[in-house]
Amino acid sequence: MMSTSTLPSYDDVVSRYEPVIGLETHVELGTRTKMFCGCSTEFGGEPNTQVCPVCLGLPGSLPVANAAAIEATIRIGLALNCTIAEWCRFARKNYFYPDMPKNFQTSQYDEPLCENGYLDVEVNGETVRIEIERVHLEEDTGKSLHVGGATGRIHGATESLVDYNRAGIPLVEIVTKPVPGTGVLAPEVARAYVTELRDVIRSLGVSDVRMEQGSLRCDVNLSLNKPGEEWGTRSETKNVNSLRSVERSVRSEMLRQASVLDAGGSILQETRHFHEDTGETTSGRSKETATDYRYFPEPDLTPMAPDPAWVAELKAALPELPRVRRLRLQADWGISDFEMASVVNAGAVELIEATIAAGGSSEAARKWWLGELSRRANESGVELGELAITPAQVAELQSLVDGGKITDKIARTVIEAVLAGEGDPAAIVSARGLEVVSDTGALTAAVDEAIAANPDVAEKIRGGNHAAAGVLIGAVMKATKGQADAKTVRELVIARLS
Amino acid sequence: MSAISRDEVAHLARLARLAVTEDELDRFAGQLDSILQHVARIGEVAADDIPPTSHSVPLVNVMRADVPEPSLAREDVLAGAPDSAEDRFRVPRILDEE
């Protein structure tokens, strides 16, 4: 492995090389049964209890395509602006690897179900169009436990133990065209694309698209070339299992390739593995070429010829897609691209929308979710949506503030109580006696006490130094346990001393 | 000129994990060559208006509903494995096998 000291800086690399990225994403569909048989796809079953003659490839078994998987794939293709094939076939991809008991994977080759689409993503306030080459349907492989080597790695293993429960689960492969011209933003564009793709697929309800559970997996292709020269040889990095890793793997592979090219070397077309711990890639097996897979049309499955009228129906029934929805909400809320980006990054779009639906204003909803609540979510290491407070409770909290019942500061105390399970904001305010002290008599008494206790300060204010009022306001707030409205107290203090 | 070389047959045999002897390579190269030449002649006859056929039955869209069906009992599944351990198929090491 190359030592990091020989790596050029990222800025240096992008000043001399242009990256071309390409992304291959695999999505496990959330169908109840496998692609070609009725075995359950439920996650976490005992090893080899969800297999049958079809997914084991036993002689005489006959696969039949899962209608729900085909429909889901067409919907993904439509959401990605693809053309849907009028007629296409499955193909056998032949290879010997124990993750498939059949010695081939049923996939698609030169006739994908969907092709020539695009997905628009936002990066730094700019829209980048990622062209989609194809969306095709195939089947997932089994899972191997590698025994005898270090920490379960395949390298050094003496044998492997295979569970075929996952073999045959419908898998959709989404391949982009090469994306040139992203320059310094290449890592962020890659991440933004996978994020947007995940959100689109989630909005379709066809997969839970969880990278940490492997239902969304990503391979990152990358090459570098000098400006004006032809595209370079690409490497394909596998094992990129989080959005952050997508970004990191592009960056680290750009640095690695630049250092190889700088030293006069050439890039091998190979598979590389990304390592979460070091953030670097290492060489994997060199790729078999497409002809080595000896693809041929799958004789046991009939061709697919989706009825164009049905495809048109599916298209008309697509839900509002995340980007369209974001643009609509941004316009409704009247906020800038930058503010919207903060909302999206905080994962607060739905929460704010629901808070507004419950009667909150867009300003207040954003203030609470992006401020106090984000802070608390960060502290507890949970997602914003996992906090024990509902959008309706946030709207109720704000209406208490707006109605002058509590101050912003008390509202924070109320949030803490809601998170601790004490109930709804209004109930907490009355149960804990947190309502603002609006009784002027009581406030005036507290102000007089504060003046008496701080004669020097009072003298300064009398002399016209209103900035000094802070000390007295602080004393009154303390005396009223923060339940007074600071603005009212300030007015009272100044009125008493002028 | 032959349609397939001896080297190509050796490469295909390797991909298919078939142990083929030197004598067999010569014999199969010859046999495959005559099969390919035969198919090439048919290809000459097939005009543009005759699409390639992959399925002999003119059916499309044969599909099943997404309804679970019982799987095999695990002992039956593993009975077909050459070896098993921990309820899984046991296979020789995967890397460096060639």
Number of domains of chain A: 3
| Number of H/I helices of chain B | 3
Spans of at least 5 consecutive residues with low confidence of chain B:
none
Main sheet of chain B? 2 strands, antiparallel
Q: How are the SSEs placed, and which strands pair?
A:
The complex is a heterodimer of chains A (498) and B (98).
Chain A: H1 10-16, E1 18-28, H2 53-56, E2 65-66, H3 67-79, E3 83-84, E4 91-94, E5 104-107, E6 114-123, E7 126-139, E8 143-147, E9 159-163, E10 170-176, H4 186-204, E11 216-225, E12 235-240, H5 243-262, E13 270-275, E14 280-286, E15 296-297, H6 308-316, H7 322-333, H8 337-345, H9 349-357, H10 362-370, H11 372-380, H12 391-402, H13 408-419, H14 425-432, H15 440-453, H16 455-462, H17 469-479, H18 486-496
Parallel strand pairs in A: 12-13
Antiparallel strand pairs in A: 1-10, 1-11, 3-6, 4-5, 4-15, 6-7, 7-10, 8-9, 11-12, 13-14
Chain B: H1 6-15, H2 22-45, E1 63-64, H3 74-79, E2 84-85, E3 88-92
Antiparallel strand pairs in B: 2-3
Helix pairs in contact in B: 1-2
Brief write-up:
The complex is a heterodimer of chains A (498) and B (98). Helices cover 39% and strands 19% of the residues of chain A.
Task: Characterize the structure shown.
The complex is a heterodimer of chains A (498) and B (98). Chain A has helices at 10-16, 53-56, 67-79, 186-204, 243-262, 308-316, 322-333, 337-345, 349-357, 362-370, 372-380, 391-402, 408-419, 425-432, 440-453, 455-462, 469-479, 486-496; strands at 18-28, 65-66, 83-84, 91-94, 104-107, 114-123, 126-139, 143-147, 159-163, 170-176, 216-225, 235-240, 270-275, 280-286, 296-297. Chain A has 498 residues and is α+β, with helices and mostly antiparallel strands. In chain A, the strands form three sheets. In chain A, strands 3-6-7-10-1-11-12-13-14 form a nine-stranded mixed β-sheet. Chain A has a three-stranded antiparallel β-sheet with strand order 5-4-15, with no helix packed on it. In chain A, a hairpin with a 4-residue loop joins strand 13 and strand 14 (280-286). Chain B has 98 residues and is mainly alpha-helical. Chain B has a domain at 6-44. In chain B, 41% of the residues lie in helices and 9% in strands. Chain B contains three helices and three strands, in the order ααβαββ. Chain B has helices at 6-15, 22-45, 74-79; strands at residues 63-64, 84-85, 88-92. Chain B has a two-stranded antiparallel sheet. In chain B, helix 1 packs across helix 2. The longest helix of chain B has 24 residues, at 22-45. Chain B is flat and about 55 Å long. Chain A: It catalyses: L-glutamyl-tRNA(Gln) + L-glutamine + ATP + H2O = L-glutaminyl-tRNA(Gln) + L-glutamate + ADP + phosphate + H(+); L-aspartyl-tRNA(Asn) + L-glutamine + ATP + H2O = L-asparaginyl-tRNA(Asn) + L-glutamate + ADP + phosphate + 2 H(+). Chain A: Heterotrimer of A, B and C subunits. Chain A: This is Aspartyl/glutamyl-tRNA(Asn/Gln) amidotransferase subunit B. Chain A: Keywords: ATP-binding, Ligase, Nucleotide-binding, Protein biosynthesis. Chain A: InterPro entries: Asn/Gln-tRNA_amidoTrfase_suB/E, Asn/Gln-tRNA_Trfase_suB/E_cat, Asn/Gln_amidotransferase, Asn/Gln_tRNA_amidoTrase-B-like, GatB, GatB_Yqey_C_2, Gln-tRNA_amidoTrfase_suB_CS, Gln_synth/guanido_kin_cat_dom.
